[in-house]
Each structure stands twice: as structure tokens, then as C-alpha cells.
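U., I forgot to send this yesterday:
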Amino acid sequence: MKINKVLLIGGTGFIGASIAEQLARQEIFITVPTRRRECGKHLFLLPTVDVVQADVFNTAQLEELVSRHDAVINLVGILHGDFERAHVTLPKMVAQACAKTGVERLIQMSALNADVNGPSDYLRSRGRGEATVWDVCRANPVLKVTMFRPSVVFGENDKFLNMFAGLLKYFPLLPLGSPNARFQPVWVEDVARALVSSINLLATNNQTYVLVGPNVYTLRELVDFVATITARRRIIIGLGPALSMLQARVLGMLPGKLITPDNVRSMSLPSTSDQPFPALFGDAAAMESVVPTYMGRDAGDSRNRYQQFRDSAGR
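Result:
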């Protein structure tokens, strides 16, 4: 059955916006539930998107929403807060709602290094969330699930590289915790393409895919990269493990929570993979070819140049 209507849970976020755009280009109808409809106002102009006010943690509302669609994509993820609720309870509720209402296709976003025995609450909750979804899938063979595990995702509106760009703008000296943490950043448009493509690909049913970019960087190298393209050369002081954790404890108590001790524990594992970006979904763009199109003093009209890059890349 060709998918024509998709329920996009977590669709108001950074990754969700790219997925909604790609689905809309395929003239697929998308419903994006959110507790406050104004949070999805950036999606209002997409012709096939309907942003609705709803509480997906309400079982009755969730089942009603799911029942009106051919497939469900669940993107909900948090870096701070109630991990159990966001990463375990909700995925289980979504999978059960699909099984109960007869929806056969579920795309679930997880994270690289998700593991019930992982070093952080974040990674352990992601692992438990995966396990609950697969349990529901095994108990309901009609339900076909595809699980995605991305490394850190970058893009014009990300909260990763842009966070460092902001810090570099205001601080001439930057103490950097976990400077040797390793990442394999993947472009948000490549992540979106993989998820959108998987919906109608039978080969992806009941499979798990790692999503990574072509290159591996330390956190310090990523900060140096941002400093270079924004022409903000700064003194970066790498902190050892003890000072990294102390910094995280202090910053974790401030509004906005730039980093927490749990984040530091997550970074103790390299967010990298020996598996390349799945060939089934095409090639992944290198960070160096994308980020300068929207970040830096020479970017010009970033939105225009970003769109030009996407057009030239066939995105």
C-alpha cells in the first residue's frame, strides 16, 4: 500500500521541519500534532501539512490521530528532562496505537549508541524505547517498524554547531568540556531523506539503520571548524574529565542547560559507526560542503544560498 497520509509526531522540531518539507514535495498529506499550535507556525505554509493541537500522551487522542493515517513517524527526543516519558513511554504508546488501529507502518527515531546498559540515562532510555517498540512489533506481526539511529545532526537551525557559533561570538576564551569526544555529524536533509524514503521501501521493514556523515571529528575539531568559518578565532581550552564534569554540573543548573553531567556521560562513547550511511538512501553530504552555505561571514543571504545548495544537490 502506498503511503499517502503520515502522522509526524515531533514534527515541529529541527529534524521534523525537514521531513515535513520532503514529504510535502511528494504531495503526501502530513498531520503534525503539538500541544501549542503556534509552535508549528513555521510549517503553516507547506501545502499538505496540517498542524493540530493535541496531546500525544493522551491515549484516546493519540489513537484517534493514528487511525486517520497510513503511517506514523515518531521523532520525539530530548537531551534533558524526563527521558523515560519521552523515550520509553511515548514510543510504546505510539507502537501500541498503531497495532490497535491497524496502521501497518511505523518509523521510529532513536539515537546512535542507544543501549539499555549505556553509560547515561539518555542512552539507556533510548535503548529501552527501542526494546519496547520491538516488543510491540513482535506481538503484532502486521506492524512493520523501521528504526533509525543518527549521530549528531547538523543543519541551518541545529542546536549543536549553532550553539558553539553563539558562544564563540561572545566569549574570547572558551573552556571546552570533553574536547576529545568523537562525532560523525550527519546533515539533517540526509536524515530526512532516509526516513522519508523508508516509508514505502519494503526492504526497510523491521530494520535498524545507523545514520552518520562521511567524516569523524573530535568536539574540539568541530568547535575549531565553526570558529574558522565564522572568522572568530578564539582561545579554546580543553578540559580534562574531572573539570568537564564540574563544568557540566554548573551549566546544568543554569537556564537553558547548555550541557549536563548526563550529556558528558553520553559523550564518553564515540558517536561514530563503522557502518557508512546506508547506500539504500544515497550518499551523505560532508559537513564542509554544507555548513559554509548558511554559517559564516561570507554566507550572504543564508536561506537563499542554502536553497541553492539543496537545488544543486538534487535535494
